[in-house]
Protein backbone atom coordinates (compact mmCIF):
# COMPACT_ATOMS: atom_id res chain seq x y z
CA UNK A 1 0.00 0.00 0.00
CA UNK A 2 1.35 3.45 -0.90
CA UNK A 3 1.29 6.19 1.77
CA UNK A 4 1.37 9.92 1.05
CA UNK A 5 4.91 11.08 1.25
CA UNK A 6 4.23 14.77 1.81
CA UNK A 7 2.34 16.14 4.79
CA UNK A 8 2.13 19.87 5.00
CA UNK A 9 0.46 19.78 8.40
CA UNK A 10 -2.46 21.87 7.25
CA UNK A 11 -5.93 20.73 8.11
CA UNK A 12 -7.99 20.18 5.00
CA UNK A 13 -11.45 21.63 4.95
CA UNK A 14 -14.30 19.19 5.48
CA UNK A 15 -16.58 18.76 2.49
CA UNK A 16 -19.78 20.70 2.64
CA UNK A 17 -22.88 18.69 3.41
CA UNK A 18 -26.05 19.20 1.54
CA UNK A 19 -28.88 20.82 3.41
CA UNK A 20 -31.61 18.41 4.43
CA UNK A 21 -35.18 19.10 3.77
CA UNK A 22 -36.94 21.24 6.38
CA UNK A 23 -38.58 19.29 9.16
CA UNK A 24 -42.34 19.04 8.99
CA UNK A 25 -44.19 21.22 11.48
CA UNK A 26 -46.32 19.47 14.06
CA UNK A 27 -49.54 20.99 15.20
CA UNK A 28 -49.74 21.88 18.92
CA UNK A 29 -51.86 20.03 21.40
CA UNK A 30 -55.38 21.35 21.52
CA UNK A 31 -56.16 23.54 24.49
CA UNK A 32 -58.95 21.31 25.62
CA UNK A 33 -56.72 18.31 25.97
CA UNK A 34 -53.91 20.23 27.71
CA UNK A 35 -56.25 21.53 30.37
CA UNK A 36 -57.42 18.11 31.40
CA UNK A 37 -56.26 17.09 34.92
CA UNK A 38 -54.67 13.81 35.78
CA UNK A 39 -56.51 11.23 37.76
CA UNK A 40 -56.25 11.95 41.47
CA UNK A 41 -54.97 9.41 43.99
CA UNK A 42 -57.57 7.43 45.78
CA UNK A 43 -58.20 7.92 49.51
CA UNK A 44 -57.47 4.32 50.32
CA UNK A 45 -54.19 3.75 52.15
CA UNK A 46 -52.52 0.54 53.34
CA UNK A 47 -52.83 -0.12 57.08
CA UNK A 48 -50.06 1.24 59.37
CA UNK A 49 -48.30 -2.03 60.00
CA UNK A 50 -44.59 -1.96 60.90
CA UNK A 51 -42.26 -4.90 61.27
CA UNK A 52 -41.46 -6.08 64.78
CA UNK A 53 -38.39 -4.72 66.58
CA UNK A 54 -34.97 -6.23 66.29
CA UNK A 55 -34.71 -9.61 67.91
CA UNK A 56 -31.49 -8.59 69.69
CA UNK A 57 -33.33 -6.01 71.81
CA UNK A 58 -35.44 -8.64 73.46
CA UNK A 59 -32.37 -10.80 73.97
CA UNK A 60 -30.46 -8.02 75.72
CA UNK A 61 -33.37 -7.31 78.07
CA UNK A 62 -33.61 -10.92 79.18
CA UNK A 63 -31.96 -11.97 82.44
CA UNK A 64 -30.59 -15.49 82.42
CA UNK A 65 -29.83 -17.53 85.49
CA UNK A 66 -26.23 -18.66 85.92
CA UNK A 67 -25.27 -22.00 84.47
CA UNK A 68 -23.09 -24.38 86.43
CA UNK A 69 -21.68 -27.40 84.66
CA UNK A 70 -20.42 -29.21 87.77
CA UNK A 71 -21.29 -32.79 88.60
CA UNK A 72 -24.10 -33.52 91.04
CA UNK A 73 -22.79 -34.43 94.51
CA UNK A 74 -24.04 -37.69 95.93
CA UNK A 75 -23.59 -39.09 99.42
CA UNK A 76 -22.62 -35.73 100.95
CA UNK A 77 -24.20 -33.41 103.50
CA UNK A 78 -23.11 -30.33 101.60
CA UNK A 79 -26.57 -29.64 100.20
CA UNK A 80 -28.24 -29.82 103.61
CA UNK A 81 -25.49 -27.73 105.23
CA UNK A 82 -25.69 -25.12 102.50
CA UNK A 83 -29.44 -24.57 102.64
CA UNK A 84 -29.37 -24.54 106.44
CA UNK A 85 -26.69 -21.84 106.43
CA UNK A 86 -28.31 -20.02 103.51
CA UNK A 87 -31.59 -19.78 105.41
CA UNK A 88 -29.80 -18.13 108.35
CA UNK A 89 -28.29 -15.59 105.93
CA UNK A 90 -31.67 -14.73 104.42
CA UNK A 91 -33.19 -14.28 107.89
CA UNK A 92 -30.36 -12.02 109.04
CA UNK A 93 -30.47 -9.71 105.99
CA UNK A 94 -34.24 -10.02 105.55
CA UNK A 95 -34.19 -11.01 101.88
CA UNK A 96 -36.33 -13.57 100.03
CA UNK A 97 -34.52 -14.99 97.00
CA UNK A 98 -36.03 -17.52 94.63
CA UNK A 99 -36.48 -21.02 96.05
CA UNK A 100 -33.89 -23.36 94.50
CA UNK A 101 -34.31 -26.44 96.68
CA UNK A 102 -35.97 -28.24 93.77
CA UNK A 103 -33.03 -27.61 91.43
CA UNK A 104 -30.24 -30.09 90.90
CA UNK A 105 -27.30 -29.52 93.21
CA UNK A 106 -24.85 -27.74 92.91
CA UNK A 107 -26.71 -25.77 90.23
CA UNK A 108 -29.32 -24.74 92.78
CA UNK A 109 -26.55 -23.49 95.08
CA UNK A 110 -25.13 -21.18 92.41
CA UNK A 111 -28.57 -19.82 91.55
CA UNK A 112 -29.35 -19.18 95.23
CA UNK A 113 -26.05 -17.35 95.85
CA UNK A 114 -26.44 -15.30 92.68
CA UNK A 115 -29.98 -14.19 93.47
CA UNK A 116 -29.21 -13.46 97.14
CA UNK A 117 -26.18 -11.35 96.21
CA UNK A 118 -28.27 -9.38 93.73
CA UNK A 119 -30.95 -8.62 96.33
CA UNK A 120 -28.38 -7.67 98.97
CA UNK A 121 -26.52 -5.26 96.70
CA UNK A 122 -29.81 -3.62 95.71
CA UNK A 123 -30.84 -3.21 99.35
CA UNK A 124 -27.59 -2.11 101.02
CA UNK A 125 -25.10 0.62 100.12
CA UNK A 126 -22.10 -1.61 100.83
CA UNK A 127 -21.13 -4.43 98.51
CA UNK A 128 -21.95 -7.93 99.81
CA UNK A 129 -20.17 -10.98 98.42
CA UNK A 130 -21.23 -14.56 99.22
CA UNK A 131 -19.13 -17.69 99.30
CA UNK A 132 -19.49 -21.28 100.51
CA UNK A 133 -16.74 -22.45 102.86
CA UNK A 134 -15.86 -25.80 104.39
CA UNK A 135 -15.09 -25.78 108.11
CA UNK A 136 -14.43 -28.88 110.22
CA UNK A 137 -16.23 -31.16 107.79
CA UNK A 138 -19.33 -28.97 107.46
CA UNK A 139 -20.25 -26.25 104.98
CA UNK A 140 -21.27 -22.68 105.84
CA UNK A 141 -22.01 -19.52 103.88
CA UNK A 142 -19.71 -16.54 104.38
CA UNK A 143 -20.88 -12.97 103.66
CA UNK A 144 -18.22 -10.30 103.07
CA UNK A 145 -19.43 -6.71 103.32
CA UNK A 146 -17.11 -4.11 101.77
CA UNK A 147 -17.39 -0.32 101.72
CA UNK A 148 -15.79 0.54 98.39
CA UNK A 149 -14.00 3.90 98.28
CA UNK A 150 -12.97 3.81 94.64
CA UNK A 151 -9.93 5.82 93.54
CA UNK A 152 -10.82 8.92 95.57
CA UNK A 153 -8.29 10.75 97.73
CA UNK A 154 -10.18 11.98 100.79
CA UNK A 155 -7.82 14.90 101.45
CA UNK A 156 -9.44 17.65 103.54
CA UNK A 157 -7.89 21.12 102.95
CA UNK A 158 -7.36 23.28 106.05
CA UNK A 159 -6.15 26.59 104.56
CA UNK A 160 -9.60 27.50 103.11
CA UNK A 161 -11.05 27.15 106.61
CA UNK A 162 -8.18 29.25 107.99
CA UNK A 163 -9.22 32.13 105.74
CA UNK A 164 -12.92 31.56 106.33
CA UNK A 165 -12.33 32.10 110.05
CA UNK A 166 -10.83 35.51 109.26
CA UNK A 167 -13.93 36.49 107.28
CA UNK A 168 -16.26 38.30 109.73
CA UNK A 169 -19.31 37.49 107.63
CA UNK A 170 -18.73 33.72 107.74
CA UNK A 171 -16.85 33.39 111.01
CA UNK A 172 -19.66 31.58 112.81
CA UNK A 173 -20.17 29.18 109.92
CA UNK A 174 -16.44 28.50 109.92
CA UNK A 175 -16.65 27.78 113.63
CA UNK A 176 -19.10 24.96 112.90
CA UNK A 177 -16.69 23.47 110.39
CA UNK A 178 -13.94 23.77 112.96
CA UNK A 179 -16.09 21.64 115.28
CA UNK A 180 -16.34 19.09 112.46
CA UNK A 181 -12.56 19.15 112.05
CA UNK A 182 -12.12 18.57 115.76
CA UNK A 183 -14.50 15.58 115.66
CA UNK A 184 -12.72 14.08 112.65
CA UNK A 185 -9.32 14.52 114.27
CA UNK A 186 -10.06 13.40 117.85
CA UNK A 187 -12.71 10.69 117.32
CA UNK A 188 -12.51 9.49 113.72
CA UNK A 189 -8.67 9.64 113.93
CA UNK A 190 -8.02 11.20 110.54
CA UNK A 191 -4.26 11.96 110.33
CA UNK A 192 -2.90 15.50 109.99
CA UNK A 193 -0.17 16.45 107.54
CA UNK A 194 2.07 18.31 110.03
CA UNK A 195 2.21 15.32 112.39
CA UNK A 196 3.94 12.00 111.92
CA UNK A 197 1.92 10.43 109.12
CA UNK A 198 2.15 9.33 105.51
CA UNK A 199 1.23 12.81 104.27
CA UNK A 200 3.79 14.42 106.56
CA UNK A 201 6.57 12.52 104.79
CA UNK A 202 5.20 13.49 101.38
CA UNK A 203 5.37 17.17 102.29
CA UNK A 204 8.79 16.67 103.84
CA UNK A 205 10.10 15.02 100.70
CA UNK A 206 8.91 17.89 98.49
CA UNK A 207 10.42 20.40 100.92
CA UNK A 208 13.83 18.70 100.85
CA UNK A 209 13.69 18.45 97.07
CA UNK A 210 13.23 22.21 96.76
CA UNK A 211 15.45 23.54 99.53
CA UNK A 212 18.42 21.21 99.10
CA UNK A 213 19.06 22.31 95.50
CA UNK A 214 18.23 26.04 95.26
CA UNK A 215 20.51 26.50 92.25
CA UNK A 216 18.42 24.11 90.18
CA UNK A 217 15.47 26.50 90.22
CA UNK A 218 14.88 29.93 88.80
CA UNK A 219 15.19 32.49 91.56
CA UNK A 220 11.57 33.66 91.28
CA UNK A 221 10.24 30.07 91.24
CA UNK A 222 12.44 29.06 94.14
CA UNK A 223 11.19 31.88 96.37
CA UNK A 224 7.59 31.11 95.39
CA UNK A 225 7.91 27.40 96.20
CA UNK A 226 9.67 28.02 99.52
CA UNK A 227 6.98 30.56 100.40
CA UNK A 228 4.22 28.01 99.76
CA UNK A 229 6.01 25.41 101.88
CA UNK A 230 6.37 27.84 104.77
CA UNK A 231 2.72 28.88 104.50
CA UNK A 232 1.60 25.25 104.58
CA UNK A 233 3.76 24.65 107.66
CA UNK A 234 2.90 27.79 109.63
CA UNK A 235 -0.83 28.01 108.87
CA UNK A 236 -1.13 24.25 109.24
CA UNK A 237 0.29 24.37 112.75
CA UNK A 238 -2.02 27.26 113.62
CA UNK A 239 -5.05 25.25 112.49
CA UNK A 240 -3.81 22.19 114.35
CA UNK A 241 -3.75 24.15 117.62
CA UNK A 242 -7.34 25.22 117.01
CA UNK A 243 -8.39 21.65 116.24
CA UNK A 244 -6.61 20.35 119.34
CA UNK A 245 -8.61 22.73 121.52
CA UNK A 246 -11.51 20.74 122.94
CA UNK A 247 -13.70 23.84 123.31
CA UNK A 248 -14.94 23.27 119.76
CA UNK A 249 -15.69 19.68 120.62
CA UNK A 250 -17.54 20.57 123.82
CA UNK A 251 -19.71 23.36 122.34
CA UNK A 252 -20.57 21.66 119.07
CA UNK A 253 -24.29 21.21 119.75
CA UNK A 254 -24.61 24.59 121.48
CA UNK A 255 -23.18 26.54 118.55
CA UNK A 256 -25.08 24.42 116.03
CA UNK A 257 -28.47 25.12 117.63
CA UNK A 258 -27.77 28.85 117.99
CA UNK A 259 -26.50 29.30 114.44
CA UNK A 260 -28.57 31.39 112.00
CA UNK A 261 -27.37 31.27 108.37
CA UNK A 262 -27.26 34.50 106.37
CA UNK A 263 -26.39 33.19 102.89
CA UNK A 264 -25.89 30.02 100.87
CA UNK A 265 -22.40 29.39 102.25
CA UNK A 266 -23.68 29.52 105.82
CA UNK A 267 -26.51 27.16 104.95
CA UNK A 268 -24.04 24.70 103.46
CA UNK A 269 -21.86 24.91 106.57
CA UNK A 270 -24.90 24.34 108.76
CA UNK A 271 -26.10 21.36 106.72
CA UNK A 272 -22.72 19.63 106.75
CA UNK A 273 -22.26 20.30 110.48
CA UNK A 274 -25.69 18.82 111.25
CA UNK A 275 -24.89 15.65 109.29
CA UNK A 276 -21.56 15.16 111.05
CA UNK A 277 -23.12 15.85 114.43
CA UNK A 278 -25.80 13.23 113.73
CA UNK A 279 -23.08 10.75 112.75
CA UNK A 280 -21.19 11.52 115.95
CA UNK A 281 -24.30 10.93 118.07
CA UNK A 282 -24.98 7.58 116.38
CA UNK A 283 -21.33 6.44 116.60
CA UNK A 284 -19.71 8.44 119.43
CA UNK A 285 -16.44 6.47 119.55
CA UNK A 286 -16.08 4.91 116.10
CA UNK A 287 -12.95 5.58 114.04
CA UNK A 288 -12.09 4.88 110.42
CA UNK A 289 -9.95 1.91 111.45
CA UNK A 290 -12.66 -0.09 113.23
CA UNK A 291 -13.38 -2.31 110.21
CA UNK A 292 -10.13 -1.79 108.31
CA UNK A 293 -9.29 -4.96 106.41
CA UNK A 294 -6.13 -6.59 107.78
CA UNK A 295 -5.96 -9.50 105.35
CA UNK A 296 -4.49 -7.26 102.65
CA UNK A 297 -1.58 -6.07 104.83
CA UNK A 298 1.89 -7.51 104.12
CA UNK A 299 3.56 -9.83 106.58
CA UNK A 300 5.58 -7.59 108.88
CA UNK A 301 7.74 -10.52 110.02
CA UNK A 302 8.79 -11.34 106.48
CA UNK A 303 12.28 -10.21 105.52
CA UNK A 304 10.95 -9.03 102.15
CA UNK A 305 8.33 -6.82 103.82
CA UNK A 306 7.60 -3.67 101.85
CA UNK A 307 5.36 -0.89 103.15
CA UNK A 308 4.47 0.09 99.58
CA UNK A 309 2.63 -3.18 98.90
CA UNK A 310 -0.68 -2.00 100.39
CA UNK A 311 -2.47 1.37 100.20
CA UNK A 312 -3.56 1.62 103.82
CA UNK A 313 -6.40 3.90 104.86
CA UNK A 314 -4.20 6.61 106.40
CA UNK A 315 -2.58 7.05 102.97
CA UNK A 316 -5.72 8.16 101.14
CA UNK A 317 -7.55 9.85 104.04
CA UNK A 318 -6.12 12.88 105.83
CA UNK A 319 -5.87 16.64 106.34
CA UNK A 320 -3.74 18.57 103.81
CA UNK A 321 -2.80 22.23 103.42
CA UNK A 322 -4.81 22.81 100.23
CA UNK A 323 -5.78 20.89 97.12
CA UNK A 324 -4.52 23.21 94.40
CA UNK A 325 -1.35 25.05 93.51
CA UNK A 326 2.20 23.94 92.82
CA UNK A 327 2.76 22.38 96.24
CA UNK A 328 -0.27 20.10 96.15
CA UNK A 329 0.42 19.06 92.56
CA UNK A 330 3.84 17.77 93.59
CA UNK A 331 2.50 16.11 96.72
CA UNK A 332 -0.18 14.42 94.63
CA UNK A 333 2.39 13.22 92.10
CA UNK A 334 4.46 11.76 94.92
CA UNK A 335 1.40 10.01 96.33
CA UNK A 336 0.41 8.57 92.95
CA UNK A 337 3.96 7.33 92.37
CA UNK A 338 3.76 5.58 95.73
CA UNK A 339 0.40 4.04 94.94
CA UNK A 340 1.58 2.75 91.56
CA UNK A 341 3.93 0.39 93.40
CA UNK A 342 1.12 -1.07 95.53
CA UNK A 343 -0.73 -4.28 94.82
CA UNK A 344 -3.68 -3.97 97.23
CA UNK A 345 -5.84 -1.38 98.97
CA UNK A 346 -7.19 -1.42 102.50
CA UNK A 347 -10.91 -0.71 102.85
CA UNK A 348 -13.58 -1.25 105.54
CA UNK A 349 -14.61 -4.91 105.51
CA UNK A 350 -17.01 -6.91 107.69
CA UNK A 351 -17.27 -10.71 107.43
CA UNK A 352 -20.08 -12.91 108.74
CA UNK A 353 -20.19 -16.70 109.07
CA UNK A 354 -23.64 -18.25 109.20
CA UNK A 355 -22.82 -21.37 111.20
CA UNK A 356 -25.72 -21.21 113.66
CA UNK A 357 -24.05 -18.83 116.12
CA UNK A 358 -25.89 -15.61 117.01
CA UNK A 359 -24.99 -12.65 114.79
CA UNK A 360 -24.02 -9.31 116.31
CA UNK A 361 -25.47 -5.96 115.27
CA UNK A 362 -22.23 -4.65 113.81
CA UNK A 363 -22.57 -2.95 110.41
CA UNK A 364 -20.68 -0.75 107.97
CA UNK A 365 -23.26 2.00 108.27
CA UNK A 366 -20.73 4.39 109.83
CA UNK A 367 -18.28 4.10 106.91
CA UNK A 368 -21.05 4.24 104.30
CA UNK A 369 -22.20 7.55 105.80
CA UNK A 370 -18.75 8.97 106.55
CA UNK A 371 -17.17 8.84 103.08
CA UNK A 372 -19.98 10.71 101.26
CA UNK A 373 -19.85 13.36 104.01
CA UNK A 374 -16.10 13.72 103.55
CA UNK A 375 -16.70 14.26 99.85
CA UNK A 376 -19.29 16.90 100.62
CA UNK A 377 -16.98 18.67 103.07
CA UNK A 378 -14.07 18.65 100.62
CA UNK A 379 -16.28 20.00 97.85
CA UNK A 380 -17.36 22.93 100.00
CA UNK A 381 -13.82 23.85 101.04
CA UNK A 382 -12.32 23.38 97.59
CA UNK A 383 -14.90 25.74 96.07
CA UNK A 384 -14.67 28.39 98.78
CA UNK A 385 -13.40 31.64 97.28
CA UNK A 386 -11.50 33.41 100.03
CA UNK A 387 -10.68 36.26 97.61
CA UNK A 388 -7.00 36.42 98.41
CA UNK A 389 -3.78 35.47 96.73
CA UNK A 390 -2.38 31.98 97.06
CA UNK A 391 -1.41 31.48 100.74
CA UNK A 392 2.27 32.30 101.04
CA UNK A 393 4.78 33.76 103.45
CA UNK A 394 7.60 36.07 102.35
CA UNK A 395 10.87 34.17 102.22
UniProtKB/TrEMBL annotation:
Region ranges (Disordered): 1-47
Amino acid composition bias (Basic residues), ranges on this chain: 17-27
Protein's UniProt name: PRTRC system protein F
Organism, as annotated: Flavobacterium suaedae
Amino acid sequence: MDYAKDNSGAVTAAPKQKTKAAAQKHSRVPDGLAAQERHRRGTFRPPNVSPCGAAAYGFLKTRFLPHYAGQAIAGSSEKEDFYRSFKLLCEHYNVNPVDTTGFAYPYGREVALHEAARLLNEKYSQHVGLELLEHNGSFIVEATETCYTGNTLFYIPVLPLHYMIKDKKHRKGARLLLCVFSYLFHTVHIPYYTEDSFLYWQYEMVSEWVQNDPDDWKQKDYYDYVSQLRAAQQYGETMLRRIWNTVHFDHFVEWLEAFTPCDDLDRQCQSIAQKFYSLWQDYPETSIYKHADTSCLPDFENDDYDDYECITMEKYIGFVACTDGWLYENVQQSVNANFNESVSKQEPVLKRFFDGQPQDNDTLDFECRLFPLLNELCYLLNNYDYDTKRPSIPT
